[in-house]
């Protein structure tokens, strides 16, 4: 269970087309890089991700939680990799 004290914004982004999700690493990297900056964690709700999509997300974020997909909808709790690096210093 996760509980959050405070406020958080919701940002809606276009879902990448299926052909892009499966084959276009550069487009996925751009999409992931355009997520709002955060110092702590970020909830990402995504429809029908692909192995390549999850791989690109893992390059920039640690996936703390990935909920089992329901009707193709996946929920990820992400922690920026940069937060790992600064906490290790």
Characterization of this structure:
This protein is of the alpha+beta class and about 90 residues long. It has a domain at about 40-89. Helix content is about 35%, strand content about 20%. The protein contains four helices and three strands; from the N terminus they run ααβαββα. The chain has helices spanning about 20-25, 25-35, 50-60, 80-89; strands at about 40-45, 60-65, 75-80. It has a three-stranded antiparallel β-sheet with strand order 1-3-2. A hairpin with a 6-residue loop joins β2 (about 60-65) and β3. It is globular. The model has no long low-confidence stretch (mean pLDDT about 80).
Spell out the blueprint of helices and strands.
Elements: H1 18-23, H2 25-33, E1 42-47, H3 51-60, E2 61-66, E3 73-80, H4 81-88
Compute the CA-based radius of gyration: 13 Å
The unreliable regions are: none
End-to-end distance: 29 Å
Secondary-structure-derived class: alpha+beta
Question: How do the strands line up in the largest sheet?
Answer: 1-3-2
Largest sheet: 3 strands, antiparallel
Shape: globular
Strand residue content: 15-25%
- Specify the helix fraction band: 25-40%
The oligomeric state is single chain
What is the β-strand count?
3
Q: SSE string, helix = H, strand = E?
A: HHEHEEH
- Average pLDDT, rounded to a whole number, is 81
DSSP helical segment count: 4
Briefly, what is this?
With 89 residues, the chain is α+β, with helices and mostly antiparallel strands.
Comma- or semicolon-separated keywords:
single chain; 89 residues; alpha+beta; 3-stranded antiparallel sheet; 4 helices; 37% helix; 22% strand
